[in-house]
Amino acid sequence: MSRKYLIAGNWKMNLAPSEGATLIGEIVDAVGAQTEVDVVVCPSFVGLDAACRALASVPNIKLGAQNLYPKASGAFTGEVSPEMLKALFVGYVILGHSERREYFVETDAFVNEKVRTTLEYGMRPILCVGETLEQREAGETMAVVETQLRGGLADVSADEASEVVIAYEPVWAIGTGKTATPEMAEEVHAAIRELLGSLYGADIAAKVRVLYGGSMKPGNADGLLAQPNIDGGLIGGASLKATDFAALVESAKKQS
Ligand code: PGA
After folding, report:
1. Residue pLDDT, tens place only, 26-81
2. CA distance 246 to 105
3. Is the predicted pLDDT of residue 1 greater than 60, yes or no?
4. 211 within ligand 1 shell (Cβ under 6 A)
């Protein structure tokens, strides 16, 4: 398989800048100089500058942001632009996370604007999709994921699509300790890849990394990462502890 595993830490609204820099130091020690797996950490906006400094001489760990506003600059009080992120060498941007969809009422159209802006600036979107428990129980999982994917990727060209990372995160598994079984996750991941194939052709679909997210931790990562269409993880809780995060990188390395 040609896809390189990606393990991304979503720190959410945790850690002051100095705490983030300390965690990065611990992660650097724990992960070592490996290059088999792409590793990304996504601090809060105010933590990006300290994280950028902490990663200055660490080529194998990249910086990600948790959001952006899809304009270069201007009168958008409280927002952060792609230019500001580029200035801090941000390479990835998490977009459409279910917490933003739920608490900040982000629509697929708005997420799509952000995806296209992120690509325009040469950064990689990590586009999150996933169903709620009610939707799963109503048999709507694939319909929901398909709508989010088609909406999020609207007007994204095939060339650009190969730079996009998808994260399948069943909402009921996020921060709950409940994980999708490897088989449940693989079923959706395979369907996502099939949909990418119908949108962009098989070659592009084979290149796009589809991460799993939702209570992934050292104890359950091996089974998930062994699935043919699971190319890594978007990690919340377990990304805040260097040893756990490094164990997930190790788990992906074993599958590489
Ligand atoms: P979790 O979060 O690993 O704490 O479930 C994952 C995410 O929200 O990206």
Report:
1. 999 999 999 999 999 999 999 999 999 999 999 999 999 999 999 999 999 999 99
2. 33
3. no
4. no
Q: What is the 3-state secondary structure (H, E, C) of 99-125?
A: HHHHHCCCCHHHHHHHHHHHHHCCCEE
Which tokens go with 10?
């979503």
**Helices marked H in the chain:** 17-31, 48-54, 82-87, 98-103, 108-120, 133-137, 141-152, 158-161, 182-200, 202-207, 218-225, 242-255
Measured CA to CA in angstroms, residue 138 lies from 97, 124, 147, 178 at distances of 22, 33, 16, 19
Tokens describing residue 81: 């632009």
Q: Which of 99, 169, 186, 250 is catalytic?
A: 169
Residue in the structure block whose two tokens are 């999709």: 129
183: annotated active-site residue: no
The candidate with the shortest Cα–Cα distance to 233, out of 1, 2, 9, 4, is 9
- 């040609």: which residue's tokens? 2
Spatial neighbors of 219 by CB under 8 A, at least 6 apart, are none
Length reported for the chain: 256
Pocket probe mutation, ligand 1, options 7, 44, 215, 244, max atoms within 8 Å of Cβ: 215
* Rounded Cα distance, 47 and 189, in Å: 32
